[in-house]
UniProtKB/TrEMBL annotation:
<dbReference type="Pfam" id="PF10291">
    <property type="entry name" value="muHD"/>
</dbReference>
<dbReference type="InterPro" id="IPR018808">
    <property type="entry name" value="Muniscin_C"/>
</dbReference>
<feature type="domain" description="Muniscin C-terminal">
    <location>
        <begin position="76"/>
        <end position="255"/>
    </location>
</feature>
<protein>
    <recommendedName>
        <fullName>Muniscin C-terminal domain-containing protein</fullName>
    </recommendedName>
</protein>
Amino acid sequence: MILVSETNPFITSSSMALSNFNTVSTPSLHHSPTITTRNSETSLQLAPIPETQQPLSVSIVEKTRVTGSNMYVAGQVLITCHSNTGSIPIQLNGLDHIQNLRPRSPYVIVQADGYVINTSHFEPGKPVACFMFDINTDTSQLPLQLVAFWKCVDGISYLIVKHSKNIDIDPSKIKGSVSVAMEDQVNNVQSTPQGVWDTVKNRLTWQISDLMQQYQPDSPQQRLLAKFYIEGKGSSQPIYFNYCLEDNTLPNISIQSDAVEIKQSIVQSNQVVYM
């Protein structure tokens, strides 16, 4: 049986206190700053919101890929036509930081003063990727910054994940999780704040809401703590940060039209892996 406890694993007893992380008799904490990414088929996505009374609805989707301190963003502007209304002129705003904007023919007609959506090529109610774009930036744009530390001794693996939020992003717009999957046989798990232990996948997960509740006005950085009781001596494992950020794009791109009202929805999502 695997037991899960919300007890702080670093203060329950003197033998397992956080101060022991720096004792001479045990290995010191270490962390690997390398960040890679993996595609996630279960990444959260925001579908275009159909509004039958509006000719167009728009969904702007960004997927981020992180390598080291660099972040690459691949974006799509998905447009859904709810009726065939001919040609609709539109303007794209917030293009200053975009590299390689690619309108797609025959859905988009490029003109000197903007773009025209040719609704005759759309299937009503079906979203179409009308624009593609790229952005190169750095990881300071992520909604959360994380640094993981491990200490593995015989029978126990300790984990600290320090995290800080991006003050420019509304916390209520962030959804997702931070998780770690253990390769070793785990007999018991303790975590603070209390996470969810999946006995089938051998995975501990904290929701982003758990992290947000830790922040205080005078404490911009907080930490997640976990202790895994295992057979033998374990090793450091990747930390997965899956997120979905609504109503926010890196270049603040938006679409408007003087001819019709447009309903917009925006999502930025990614899975960042801290090795």
